[in-house]
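#random but structural
TW: two for the price of one
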Amino acid sequence: MRMSSEDRRRQLIEVAIDLFSRKGFAGTTTKEIAAAAGVTEAIIFRHFATKQDFYKAILDHKCGDQSADEWLAETQTFMDRDDDEGLFRFLISAIIRYHREEPRFERLLMHAALEGHELAIMHHNQMHLPIGAKLKEYIARRQRDGAIRDCDPSVVLFAIAGIPQFYAMQKYMYQCGQMPPSDERVIDAFMLILMHGLKTTGLKKVKRPKK
């Protein structure tokens, strides 16, 4: 059955994501993409003039997802309420969930960084830098309020994002076998560490959000 132009374009993007995530941009040819999609190279070039255009379409497809706007809107609701614990739990959960649901795209971006692919790095920065700037502004404001320990807001953000990212990469990208089976329990533990540190003195129980 013939696909519509939009369906064919979407199919080619999905096939290319799979190949780029395993072999990188430089290591993948349009001939390989065509073979995996069951079409000729001419079909690919009908939708994407160059391999670079193909790569840009993938990045636009993933980074321009409507869910990103929804994610930002939900983040803003926590910041508007000065809900530090809710915000940090939301960020940690979202990072782990993204690695669990989108391991191919994470591998693709890692290949791009290793290859120094400017287009992919630019898209990554366009998406993450504005979010990071907004979060650092929030952290700095909460520090002025005396709610968060006074240190470089960038370092605080690296801790919040870096801990779950490393865990998720080990579990879902490298498929490390000796990982905790429950992401929810891991999130609880990360929240305990972030909100109260590692020492037991004066330890308070972190409340889990109601479903």
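TW: number two ↓
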Amino acid sequence: MQRQIPGGPVTVQLSSGESITGSEILVAAGRRAIAQQVGHESIGLKSFVDNGHSLPVDESLLVTGVPGNWLYAAGDVNGRALLTHTSKYHGKIGDNAIIAHAKGVFPSHPTKFDSVSATADLFAVPQVIFTSPTVASVGLTRTAAHRERRAVREVSASAATLGAILHADGYAAGWAQWIIDAKSGMLLGATIVGQDAAELLHASTVAIVGGLKIEQLVHAIPPFPTMSEVYLNLIDAAGL
């Protein structure tokens, strides 16, 4: 990869010998846990690692198929949600499960949102692409909802608010979206694009985890003037 002039075009030469020139290069190579050669074969998990599979875990992050039920897998190695903040979450859930087993208080029938179940992995994982503008999302996107054959309502609005304009220039270009269950009115997903969008995402994450309906979110009043008034824009766009 070469950039002859600072701020100028970037040229990349491919293995075929062909050259491609563009203004910038975005590398999205994906990720995969480095799980080889750490002793999995000694506990019967070699086939999973050799085939490129993640370690199979239950909702408490206990690795299934290991005699004695003693091994837990947190973070990228279990393949559930390959993000740093998810690894922190997994650490908390795994710790809770291990301690509960040690004390003899592990629930006989774990349920979602209890202290030993990694429920957020299923529908409430926040993700951020730290580009300019920032792209932040949590829960279902429109595409994911359609893939799951969910009946949803999409609401979109500008992310520009007086509070945002006072905070920094450029917010008028921002954009926000809610994905709402068409029947129940529960919030299923949110995407916000714009400067510092990641800082606005957590309110939607809390609403999704809490199973809130957008009619309830009308009563969650953002302080004025702040960037979080984007939620008022979404509520207006929803006709509430």
